[in-house]
Amino acid sequence: MFNIAGKRFLFLAISVILILISIVALVVFGLQPGIEFSSGSMLTLGFEQEVEQSELKAELVNLGYSDVILQRTGTGDFFIRIPELTTEEKTALEEDLSARFGPLTEREFNSVSSMVAAETVHNAAIAVGVAAVGILLYITWAFRKMPKPFHYGTCAVIALVHDVLVVLGIFCILGAILGWEINLMFITGILAIIGYSVNNIVVVFDRIRENVRRGVSPDFEFVVNSSIVETLSRQLNTSLTTIIVVLALLLFVGASIQNFAIVLLIGIIVGTFDSICIAPTLLVVWDRGEWGRLISLRRAKAKEA
Amino acid sequence: MAKRNTIVFFILLALFAFAVCAIIYPMFGREELRLGLDLQGGVHLVYQADFSDIEPGTEADAIEGAIAVIERRINVLGVTEPLIQKQGSDRIVVELPGVSEVEKAKSLIGETALLEFREQGVDEEGNAAWVPATATIDGEEKTLTSGYFKENTYVGQNSLGAILLYFEWDEEGSQICGEVTGRLIGQPLAIFLSGEPLLGDDGQPIAPIVQSVITDRGQIEGLSLNEATELSQLLNAGRIPVPLTPVYEQTVSPTLGADFVGMSLKAGLIGIILVMLFMIIYYRLPGALASLALIFYGAVVLAVFKLIPVTLTLAGIGGFVLSIGMAVDANVLIFERMKEEFATGRTLGAAIEAGFNRAWTAIRDSNVTTAIVCVILIWLGSSVVESAPVTGFAVTLLIGVLVSMFSAIIVTRTLLRLFIGTSLAKKTSLFSAHREKK
Fold first, then answer.
1. B-chain residues within 8 Å CB-CB of A231?
2. What are the beta bridge partners of residue B119?
3. Which of A95, A214, B146, B262 is deepest in the core (most CB within 10 A)?
4. Residue B176 backbone phi and psi in degrees, to 5
């Protein structure tokens, strides 16, 4: 039998390192906010003639739009991120571009004012907070007959925060390298990850609940470890089926849903690790009052870094 | 027991048949799945109302009035299923599916539709200019505008074939017009729309010479038939009682939307097939039954989407596809449990029942927590300007979670019970179940 609970300090150390890397990435690179969070306009244009990205960029600068981000989509259209445009400005821009590059079609246009952008950030933050509290309360309630039910809720939320932090950190790095912006689909993905990961965590906790009731062993660490091992194949199989569909989404729908699918992909992998190695082992750490060792461990790691 | 199971099986079969019919044929007046703007193309606009000039306490009336006016104006365009609604206390959301003339639609909504009558005069710097024609009624100076029109203007032709826009003054308008025209006999009276002179068919400003005192009705000559018709419709639709500023806009071309639908259908189908393959290879016969349950799941979810109806957006499809992956979760939990129970020496039938019973608390608690997250998202979605992705995702995932619990527990269990009595049940390898080796 695997001894996962026994290696808890190894897993927690990995987790602490991941969190540190994520925090560094968040501080150093930061997330690249999309227009939903910073205001501005997005325009997707399709040209009938072949247009070089560099020429289009030069023409946009020429027209006075130097602060633009240009991307070529998978279907050969151009995605233009530009400061907020009014209808008149957009029409003028399209006319100018059409005069230079021939007929064009507007595939998509999206414009967000700064007031709306600020609200979106505010509401997204509230949603994550309320979701965390809701989960904490429900899990505490569902495990009310266990000793220390509050531990289960708290450990689940810590694991979730870990999951979200790591996804954010990886996205900062991707943003810095590939210029990926976060948008509402990204936020939706983050919230989906919370829903998905908590599902996994609860499955392990449920097994711990059952094994404690059945009195499998007086040793809590043993009970936790057998619960992890017994649910291991379920965790891996469900993650696998979910990854399969998310990959299908990523490969066949692509660009528009890319942020969402990538967040899910990273989140599912990190979340599976969380539900197997972090959330249940944290219960053991707390049960044994080993938080002190964890902090000294972090200090040691920090010194090494 | 077996008999009851057979009855349940036929009920499920009927439910499945009903769901498939609901997807294929129009039912309860629902022709097709309702697609969001990002999938069928169209424009999504959000306007912010400015209440600074509105009397306190009448804001709600002003918004309702503005919505009513926008509705009438959009009807002029002939858009099918426009959605115009209030968001929060001071915003209006306008969703126009499949509109090809986006600019036209926006100008119709933004148009003030106020005709102003102006006379010759001098501006503040002493230059000749058109200044508002005013009259003093009951000691108050009032400008002659279409604000005093009755909302029954119409377009007609005179005997010479010229296009005329007929209008009638209301009581106050009659007084003002009477005084203005009485004062200006022999002089031109120009008509301005949104601060610009109203131009005739010939490109010249329309400024007829006042022939006589006019009190009750009048007509505007010189517009083309199209312009006159549109102006008449705008005037009859009334004025928007509060200034509106656009704060959010999303436009998707219909062709792009159609591409999305095709791509997501493909993704969903391939996802389902791969998950089914995995389940069959890994869990054998139970996996095959879970695959049947997954088909049942897919049909019921789509039928629910169509009948409620749920507006399917790209994010919504994301939620649906994700829920496919999670839908088999309950089955995975049950089958894993079943294997464990079988390994401890139970008979296959007992192992199946124990698997379902023991897995239940995990299924319940894990799905309830996911449902909690969905409900919070739906609540959040209703308060965000661009709510479509978040709400769309949460609604489809919530429906998915609820239906998947039903399909995994009731459908798979019923199918499995049907097999217990048959000779197939003796081949435990079909269940990929093994006794523990001691």
1. 336
2. B131, B189
3. B146
4. -60, -45
Angle CA A55–A61–A65, to nearest 5: 130
Q: What are the Cα distances from residue A257, in Å, to A192, B318, B370?
A: 13, 8, 21
For residue B193, what are the β-bridge partners?
A: B115, B196
Contact criterion met (CB below 8 Å) for A60 and A70: yes
Which residue has 């006159």 as its token pair? Answer: B228
> Which range of residues forms the domain containing residue A84?
40-112
User: Is B106 an interface residue toward A (CB < 8 Å)?
Assistant: yes
What CATH number does residue B192 fall under?
3.30.1360.200
Encode pLDDT of B283-334 as tens digits: 888 888 888 888 888 889 888 888 887 878 877 887 887 788 777 888 888 8
Q: Is B252 touching A (CB cutoff 8 A)?
A: yes
Host domain of residue B71: 42-111
Q: What is the pLDDT of residue B437?
A: 46
Listed as ranges, residues in chain A with pLDDT below 50 are 305
Q: What DSSP character marks residue B176?
A: H
Cross-strand bridge partners of residue A72: A78
Structure tokens at A135: 């989960």
Measured in angstroms, the CA of B321 and the nearest CA of chain A are apart by 6
Domain count, chain A: 2
CB contact residues (below 8 A), chain A span 244-283, against chain B:
244-246, 248-249, 251-254, 256-257, 260-261, 264
| Residue among A246, A232, A189 nearest B274 (CA) | A246
User: DSSP assignment, residue B212?
Assistant: S
Percent of chain A with pLDDT over 90: 16
| Spatial separation of the C-alpha atoms in residues B404 and B296, rounded to whole Å | 10
**Of the candidates A112, A127, A156, which is a domain's last residue?**
A112
ipTM score of the complex?
A: 0.78
